[in-house]
UniProtKB/TrEMBL annotation:
One of its GO terms (cellular component) is cytoplasm. It comes from the Eukaryota. Pathway: Protein modification; protein neddylation. It comes from Paramormyrops kingsleyae. Residues 368-456 form the E2 binding domain. The active site is at residue 231. GO terms for molecular function: ATP binding; NEDD8 activating enzyme activity. Catalytic subunit of the dimeric E1 enzyme, which activates NEDD8. GO terms for biological process: protein neddylation. This is NEDD8-activating enzyme E1 catalytic subunit. It catalyses: ATP + [NEDD8 protein] + [E1 NEDD8-activating enzyme]-L-cysteine = AMP + diphosphate + [E1 NEDD8-activating enzyme]-S-[NEDD8 protein]-yl-L-cysteine. Its EC number is 6.2.1.64. The gene is UBA3. Coiled coil: none annotated.
Length: 457
């Protein structure tokens, strides 16, 4: 019984501890003992060139500047892990607000926070909870910042659920690289740690831009988003999903049930209810069963089930890589870790290869091979359908007779209308000749991609 601390004694001890913590400006005695063990002594797993030192901890605490992209399931875990590992200068970018359905796993958020920006609430929570940590929130899109913003960071960590955003971020870090006589200047490299999860599967990877495989090098690893052919949706539906897609894509814009131009909001129960009712009617016409409210919402929102434990594993792997790279005490992951616990547990690490002619990181001009009789529509189809490019709404321009000419642009409706006739024209009719350069911009990259047209008959 002598081991049990008297309540009064315990109260005093805790009070003293709290006082000490407050007094010593967030660096109370022994706070970094666990981190120091990794930095102040060598071991069988440390990097061969590693020199133990007390300065490394100072670097983590005072100098190292980390950018975290995404404050969702992965982002909450990442922030917590990084802050507890000693990183204090952290910027956080997220464009989302908190939804009630986030609360089961995005543990920095409370019911009172619903509706507020994720980045702000997460930053406030971490700063309040972890003394000395200074997370700066940006309730913005990654596209709202330019090179000078991204240049200030030592490491970028992505916890995103969007492939487009990931590709854009990858392209941004590539655009920061500088070369001297064709040789990469290593000081321009900002390592990118990327985590991704989908249900019980996840991956973590380390990308050294210009040096190791980048997101675009391995684009084929991402399965294309499930889409159904329009003709199936419109005239011969077989699956309940086809019926929901019919209502979402065709009936909603035609009937505008909630007013002209009001977009379908997957988080609005009235909207989902409307789509659900119409989808059920459509399914009835074709004797299709299985249209439920839940399925309707799943199709409309393209829900990928989120599993808290997968996020925790992947974020832990990513945060560990940040620590390894920032301290250079350990050899970092080379370069792709996959994790799967759908059935038992499986994890595997491999080295993804750089692609020689990667459109993002290779400096090799991209070639487009077409027959002169091919139409611009064929080029557009290739840019969007090719597994290695997977563009979303590419805009194509060319310099013809010294003038910059937009051949096709989808995102601005007046220009789309004006340039649409070009799609049915052949490359020859458009005045494009062998060797012509085409400049293509797309939301998947901040950079303009240059293609060289190779016309063969
Ligand atoms: Zn690449």
């Amino acid at each position: 019984m002598a081991d049990v601390e008297e309540p009064e004694k315990k109260r005093r001890r805790i009070e003293e501890l709290a006082q000490k913590m407050a007094l010593d400006d967030a660096n109370w005695d022994g706070r970094w003992n666990h981190v120091s063990k990794f930095l102040e002594r060598a071991g069988p797993f440390t990097h061969p060139d590693f020199e133990p030192s007390t300065e490394l901890l100072q670097f983590l605490l005072e100098t190292c500047k980390i950018l975290v992209i995404g404050a969702g399931g992965l982002g909450c875990e990442l922030l917590k892990n990084l802050a507890l590992s000693g990183f204090r200068d952290i910027h956080l970018v997220d464009m989302d607000t908190i939804d009630v359905s986030n609360l089961n796993r995005q543990f920095l958020f409370r019911p009172k926070d619903v509706g507020r920006p994720k980045a702000e609430v997460a930053a406030e929570f971490i700063n309040r909870r972890i003394p000395g940590c200074n997370v700066i929130a940006h309730f913005k899109k990654i596209q709202d910042f330019d090179e000078s913003f991204y240049q200030q960071f030592h490491i970028v960590v992505c916890g995103l659920d969007s492939i487009i955003a990931r590709r854009w971020m990858n392209g941004m870090l590539m655009s920061l690289l500088t070369f001297e006589e064709g040789v990469l200047d290593p000081s321009s490299v900002i390592p990118l740690i990327d985590g991704g999860t989908e249900g019980f599967k996840g991956n973590a990877r380390v990308i050294l831009p210009g040096m190791t495989a980048c997101i675009e090098c391995t684009l084929e690893l991402y399965p294309p988003q499930i889409t159904y052919p329009m003709c199936t949706i419109a005239s011969m539906p077989r699956l309940p999903e086809h019926c929901v897609e019919y209502v979402r894509l065709l009936q909603w814009p035609k009937e505008n049930p909630f007013g002209d131009g009001v977009p379908l909001d997957g988080d609005d129960p009235k909207h989902i209810q409307w789509v659900f009712q119409r989808s059920r009617e459509r399914a009835g016409e074709f004797s299709i069963t299985g249209v439920t409210y839940r399925l309707t919402q799943g199709v409309v929102k393209r829900i990928i089930p989120a599993v808290a434990s997968t996020n925790a594993v992947i974020a832990a792997a990513c945060a560990t890589e940040v620590f390894k790279i920032a301290s250079s005490a350990y050899i970092s992951l080379n370069n792709y870790l996959m994790f799967n616990d759908v059935d038992g547990l499986y994890t595997y690490t491999f080295e993804a290869d750089r692609k020689e002619n990667c459109p993002a990181c290779s400096q090799v001009p991209q070639e487009l091979q077409f027959a002169p009789s091919a139409k611009l529509q064929d080029v557009l189809n290739y840019l969007t359908k090719s597994a290695t490019l997977q563009m979303k709404s590419p805009a194509i321009t060319a310099t013809l007779e010294g003038k910059n000419k937009t051949l096709y642009l989808q995102t601005i409706s007046s220009i789309e209308e004006r340039t649409r006739p070009n799609l049915c024209k052949t490359l020859k009719e458009l005045g494009l000749t062998d060797g012509q350069e085409l400049a293509v911009t797309d939301i998947t990259s901040p950079q303009t991609l240059l293609f060289k047209l190779s016309l063969s008959t």
